[in-house]
Amino acid sequence: MAVKTPAKRSPKQVPKHIKQAGKAGKRGFFRRFWWLFIVVPLTLILAFMGVLIYAYEHIQIPNAAPPAQTTYVLDRHGHLITTLHAEVNRTQIPLSAMPRHLRDAVIATEDKGFYHHGAINFFSIVRAAWNDLFDKQCLLGGSTIS
Fold first, then answer.
1. Helices (DSSP H) in the chain: which residue ranges?
2. 50 or 34: which carries more pLDDT confidence?
3. What are the structural domain ranges in the chain?
4. For residues 28 and 91, what is the distance between their CA atoms, to the nearest angstrom?
5. Tens of pLDDT along 104-122?
6. Is the separation of the CB atoms in 68 and 83 below 8 Å?
7. What per-residue confidence (pLDDT) applies to 47?
């Protein structure tokens, strides 16, 4: 009995499913362990968020000391006339409880255009930033009374 042996095929004639069957166990590291690149960072992010939440809920922040309430009274040339020290028993009152003339005087001294620009004066902010940039120190502020 004669056994017929199959003829050898050239590599071009080998079907694709036979070629790929030999490479199935040789997948790359990233294809085999892709889930590590999702699970590990996600676990680290969740752990970090948990630590932040725990710290936020359990750390006690001390109450701030009351600010010093010493008032300096100056004359029109900027010379000190007197001081009203913090030992005086003062009571903070809302703006609405102050006399209208006193409110108008303070606002006129601090910002004459307060009622016209809605408490945000972009020109003053740009001017202050420009001067602070070129003087290389914070000399001016751009905010108004508010």
1. 16-22, 29-32, 36-58, 100-110, 122-135
2. 50
3. 30-59, 71-135
4. 74
5. 887 778 777 777 776 677 7
6. no
7. 97
